[in-house]
Amino acid sequence: MIQFLNVSKRYPGGFDALSNLNLTVDAGEMVFLTGHSGAGKSTLLKLVMLMERATRGQMVVGGQNLNKMPRRQIPFLRRQIGVVFQNHQLLFDRSVFDNVALPLLIAGFEPRDIGRRVRAALDKVGLLSKEKLNPIALSGGEQQRVGIARAVVNKPPLLLADEPTGNLDPKLSAEIMKLLQQFNDVGVTVLIASHDLVLIERMGKRKLTLEAGQLVGDEPEGGQVDQGGLL
Amino acid sequence: MSQESQKPLPDALSRGASLKQLSLINLWRSYCRHHVSSAHDSLRRLLVQPLSSLMTCLVIAIALALPQVLSVAVSNIDQLGQGWQGRPSLSVYLHQQVKEPVAQRLLSEIEKRELIIEGRFISPEQALEEFEEHSGFADVLGKLERNPLPPLLQLSLAEEASLEQVQALQADLQARGEVDQVDVDLQWLQRLQQILALGKTLIWILAGLLALGVLLIVGNTIRLAIAARKEEILVTKTLGGTNAFVRRPFLYTGFWYGLLGGLLALLLTEMCLFALSGPVAKLAGSYGSSFRLIGLNWFDAGFLFLVSSVLGWLGAALAVGRHLAAIEPK
């Protein structure tokens, strides 16, 4: 699903966010991406969505070569990737329903399909009863669940999450993770950037560790491979 | 939450990993739907803030109505001139020493020409009498030792006489010994035409400048609208909205500003014409004319709407082109 080959990203000003990264995430995997702030987690996710372009290296996402992708194709790549943000990025000028419906409107779904799919997604995250509310009236955990519903509503094959539990207490965080895992259970590839190590350990999924823009650890699912005291 | 999340996946989501392929016809329909919803939504946003929208539309309306009113004024004056051009006349001033019999002979000779419908001889005495009567200078004129006015032949020409024919006749008469000076009463009309042509050019220049103003007004308004909706634009782009998708509501906003501005401009123009029609009718009446102001016709109104909405759209397109590209999710 995701393949990085010798990928480097240097920001203007000379900061190397990623250097010589090699990485493969297979379809249907659930992978955690961890590391300190500034280790390059967010940059990696941005490269996958083409919010940033790699300075060097080859990138293939969903069978599409991102290096050669022209600007006008980028929106169509993004429609196949669901994203969950730490600050959820909901729009407070419209209802929960309309927030979740946005990806479907963009992709051009029929209105009756939109209603059905939005309600299914909201039902999945347990917020069907709040579809008419403004997201500002919801708690932090609920807002994050609306964000997840929006990310999965058009059934993307790939789901990215950037610190999805960053602002939540441990209980809510566990619930969010469980929710993400349920999407992985039905075949969605899930890549989560997080530094909540306790939670990641408990999930027992594959864990990639970044440090200063380099991949320094790759623990397979269920494995407890020693990382030379890195963690 | 935990109980809810344990539920089996609903049918609509259970197929998981595959974006439903949308057929071409579906895409076309969704494209049209987005046009309709953008148009609807942008109009709704304008109406939600009626006062500030009205202000913007009013500025546009004034910029459009000004050249409109001026051009209506010019075309009315033009119309007035056209009406009078029909009966050109020549005033043939003879030398002082030319006596009435000679003048009468000359008149009957000239009258035989085809262009001349009728001629009238006005003797210096008659002329002085009329002048005294109309000018109110009777006392002063009475003190004059001798009549300074020349004998005059007043010739009415056929309506179909062209300017060249009239000028040829003028030159011909001028060449005769008895004739001192020939005035064509068409000259003022010629000058009027020239002034009107100048006026029309000035109106076009003014209209061009004001159209540029409308572009800037709409552009600036759209720039503010883009800034106010930056979050939404970012999220839309992150979720895979194309530039066209993001642009569309703003283009419609510009279009609505233009169209509503045009509507108000029409209203303003009609109000100006209505306010002027009374005084104009009075003035025309005092000259014994039944002249009435000619307002805008359907074609003018349609043209105004077309121009205003195109200007609104264009202003929005310029602003969107400049400012939307700068908003990219980071």
UniProtKB/TrEMBL annotation, chain A:
Subcellular location: Cell inner membrane; Cell membrane
UniProt keyword ATP-binding present: yes
Main location as per UniProt: membrane
Chain's gene name: ftsE
Molecular function as annotated in GO: ATP binding; ATP hydrolysis activity; transmembrane transporter activity
Domain ABC transporter positions: 2-231
Keywords linked to the UniProt accession: ATP-binding, Cell cycle, Cell division, Cell membrane, Membrane, Nucleotide-binding
Domain of life: Bacteria
Keyword Magnesium attributed: no
Subunit structure: Homodimer. Forms a membrane-associated complex with FtsX.
UniProt similarity note: Belongs to the ABC transporter superfamily.
Identification of the protein by name: Cell division ATP-binding protein FtsE
Summary of the function given for this chain in its UniProt record: Part of the ABC transporter FtsEX involved in cellular division. Important for assembly or stability of the septal ring.
GO terms of biological process kind: cell division
InterPro entries: AAA+_ATPase (IPR003593), ABC_transporter-like_ATP-bd (IPR003439), ABC_transporter-like_CS (IPR017871), ABC_transpr_LolD-like (IPR015854), Cell_div_FtsE (IPR005286), P-loop_NTPase (IPR027417)
TrEMBL record, chain B:
One GO term (biological process): cell division
Domain FtsX extracellular: 90-182
Pfam families in the cross-refs: FtsX, FtsX_ECD
The keyword Cell membrane belongs to this UniProt entry's keyword annotation: yes
Membrane topology type: Multi-pass membrane protein
Signal sequence annotation: none
Transmembrane segments: 202-222, 255-276, 296-320
Any one annotated GO CC term: plasma membrane
Compartment annotation: Cell inner membrane
Domain ABC3 transporter permease C-terminal intervals: 205-320
PANTHER family: CELL DIVISION PROTEIN FTSX (PTHR47755:SF1)
Family note: Belongs to the ABC-4 integral membrane protein family. FtsX subfamily.
Oligomer status and interactors: Forms a membrane-associated complex with FtsE.
Name of this chain's protein: Cell division protein FtsX
Species lineage: Bacteria, Pseudomonadati, Pseudomonadota, Gammaproteobacteria, Cellvibrionales
